[in-house]
């Protein structure tokens, strides 16, 4: 029996642990974790994997995703189809949510996750709130749809943190919305179903489970406190939509007399395992609460400009030392590097200056944005990775240095070229736990996944 030996991935350029390097390799153990960086004196005791003409970088983290929303990409952009605000856009979202069967959800999620892999994304935080059958009746197994999403991720090869979402009401003083009937659970049922799922996938390699009270409007405070205690007691990450729209703040003030973040801070519900999604319409004091708690913010720049949400003040977050991750959210576009650069470019438009995020606390802009696109997302999902430091998950992607978008990239400019200049066409390989799931731009299941997705899309468009 051949004894397993570490793998040494040897690209022309390597970006690891926040630094660019030339002619150094990534040493990966049989457990799929990074052992170290460098080139051993002898390669006799390693499995050498040469990657000539390529640069290797930490895998990108998609910390906030609703995979089923890929189904109506491009079909809700005009006022007639998608309305003029976030609140009217939701009607298209409800149509997609109420369309998919478990089998169809599996097909849509696989296509969405494959697109993520092709964009260099190695882990996804799936903010999952589809729980019931189309008529609102719970399935015999209340985690049926969650399992289909997890099964889709495993099929494609992407790492997943299934953020099982609590959606208990339509909002303060509102009747239940018919478009949300697949979302609703009572708090006791939610906690029971969450515990079953978390217990099943505890220490299951590339699958983990997190907690996700949807929002202040969807989860009353007493229930939110129970859910937060559950997360804290089991050391699980907790994600929550916060202040995406001014109307959310107004509703919270009407119900509780204060804004969402002020409420969370006053009740002690923010901590290092908390991630606040969007967090656009916050006061400076609210950002200070987030910083003091050590919480992460997940910004979704593509979705936020698609829906007209507003501009996330990434410069204030950076000055306060708040970790910022990125998410593709509504799947209007799946490109975490685009989200990273737009995080800076939105500020340039608003402030009419350049390099807004550059040099804050001495950190170069490209290194900051790459860390947000990788390490901060892994941290938000409760995972060790995103930096290729010893002990990290060996999740990475490569770019073709001969791709037309990458020409001229060298050791000094690698981070900036990838963040600000490289296109998705340059991404060639993606590895999760040291195993290639995309090789030279090809995924072994791509044709079958595309075929099944087209069939689901055809039925969705035809209304059958």
Explain the overall architecture.
This protein is α/β, with parallel strands linked by helices and 464 residues long. The protein has two domains: 7-58 and 388-433, Urease, subunit C, domain 1; 60-380, Alpha-Beta Barrel (TIM Barrel), CATH 3.20.20. 36% of the residues lie in helices and 21% in strands. It has 16 helices and 16 strands. The strands form three sheets. Strands 1, 2, 3, 4, 5, 14, 15 and 16 form an eight-stranded mixed sheet that branches. Helix 3 (102-118) runs parallel beside helix 4 (144-156) and helix 12 crosses helix 13 (365-373). The longest helix has 17 residues, at 102-118. The chain is globular, with a radius of gyration of 22 Å.
Mean pLDDT: 96
Percentage of residues assigned to helices = 25-40%
Largest sheet: 8 strands, mixed
Low-confidence parts = none
CATH topology of the largest domain: TIM Barrel
Outline, from the CA principal axes? globular
Give the CATH superfamily of the largest domain: Metal-dependent hydrolases
What is the subunit organization of this protein?
Answer: single chain
Number of separate strands: 16
Number of domains: 2
Tell me the number of helical segments per DSSP (H or I, 4 or more residues long): 16
Strand-pairing-aware structural class: alpha/beta
State the end-to-end distance.
54 Å
Beta-strand share of residues? 15-25%
**Highest CATH level, the class of the largest domain:** Alpha Beta
Question: Can you tell me the CATH architecture of the largest domain?
Answer: Alpha-Beta Barrel
Rg estimate, integer Å: 22 Å
